[in-house]
Design goal:
The chain has 12 helices and 14 strands. It is of the alpha+beta class and 380 residues long.
């Protein structure tokens, strides 16, 4: 038995925010803010993104609300009702509440009968972790219809007021690059999928052939983190005497060690090579390569590694991303990418898709192989 993605949904808050409008929402931080912004945007290639805050930095819609809205769209397209759902699995990076779990809040606001829930944490692979949990529950026959949702609300962590009190790295008040550039990398939004033990009656479904989720945390230090100045656990934000001290140390802002990003690329290509050597997929048979990556620069690094190793990578015309239009939505990105592919009519029965999601946090790589099918094909 396997599982089928029978529908997708998305929720992107508000209107697209252009590069020129970013500071109208987030505000500037330090004297080098404009320089960091321009250099970051040049590297990541993002043209527009979405924020769940307004220009007064007030929350317009919560992370839970975004997940619920995307979920309702996916359920409506699936030809099922919330009463049919017997598993809800959700992933996010920084939830609205530290407790209870994100899936509890989504289930509570979404409604429906009592059911099993799964909350997955982390960074970019939180959504894939939730998806794999749902896939396995269906393949072993424990569940028949699963709702999987992923959401990110990063803009509220990047408000300039949240950097008040953070110790600068120079006398002119400049912020450390590892925290300053993150404000121009991430976006808000949510995606959702309905998985079932059979394909949709009408239209095209995506059969989940396999999902691989591999951690390389044993190979290096933390690359991207929130809640600690250094990325180590010896002193987290809760270990400071008060919130003021934690803020001054920069423990309450997102950070990424740029020097470690080449190692993430290496891990990703290593994992691609391993799966290829095991015969898990045929690059020449891949119609679409939906890929979550944080910047166009990162994509170039992956392609360079593949060429140097003389590895048979996915053809360039199979790569699919909406990074430039919707920004980097973290763990929700691959959901929104697949939603765009499916709703735009680009996927035909028989197409094979290989999805890639790298997570810089402490290095994890996810790949997923899908095959587009129809109900008639499965029945015959």
């Amino acid at each position: 038995m396997t599982s089928y993605i029978v529908s997708t949904g998305r929720f992107l808050p508000g209107s697209p925010v252009s590069n020129e409008e970013i500071d109208e929402y987030l505000g500037a931080v330090g004297p080098n803010s404009a320089l960091v912004r321009d250099q970051t945007l040049l590297n990541n290639g993002i043209k527009t993104r979405y924020y769940a805050i307004d220009r007064q930095q007030r929350t317009v819609v919560s992370s839970t609300d975004m997940a619920v809205n995307a979920s309702r769209e996916a359920i409506g397209r699936a030809g099922v009702t919330i009463d049919d759902v017997d598993l809800i699995a959700c992933g996010t990076t920084i939830p609205d509440l530290m407790a209870p779990g994100f899936a509890s809040m989504v289930h509570g606001d979404l409604g429906g009968p009592a059911c099993e829930i799964v909350t997955a944490g982390g960074l970019c692979n939180a959504g894939m972790t939730a998806l794999k949990a749902a896939h396995h529950q269906i393949t072993v026959g424990e569940k028949h219809t699963a709702l999987v949702a992923a959401a990110e609300f990063q803009s509220r962590t990047f408000k300039n007021t949240r950097y008040n009190g953070v110790a600068p790295v120079s006398g002119d008040g400049a912020m450390a690059l590892e925290m300053a550039f993150m404000r121009y990398m991430l976006s808000d939004g949510a995606g959702a999928m309905v998985l079932r033990d059979r394909p949709a009656v009408n239209g095209t479904s995506l059969r989940v052939d396999w999902i691989s989720l591999t951690s390389f945390a044993n190979t290096g230090p933390t690359c991207m983190h929130f809640g600690s100045e250094s990325g180590e656990t010896r002193q987290s934000w809760l270990d400071y005497p008060d919130a003021t001290a934690a803020t001054a140390a920069g423990a309450l802002v997102m950070r990424q060690n740029l020097a470690l990003l080449p190692h993430l690329v290496k891990c990703g290509v290593d994992e691609y090579e391993r799966l290829l050597a095991e015969g898990r997929f045929d690059p020449s048979a891949i119609r679409w390569f939906p890929a979550h990556y944080s910047s166009e620069k990162m994509k170039e690094m992956v392609l360079t590694q593949l060429r140097r190793r003389q590895v048979d990578g996915p053809p360039l015309d199979t790569w699919f991303s909406n990074l430039q239009q919707v920004g980097n939505i973290g763990c929700a990105a691959i959901f929104v990418i697949l939603d765009e592919l499916m709703t735009s009519g680009l996927v035909s029965p028989g197409d094979k898709l290989l999805c890639m999601v790298p997570e810089s946090g402490r290095f994890s790589i996810a790949f997923m192989h899908l095959t587009a099918v129809t109900n008639d094909e499965v029945r015959t």
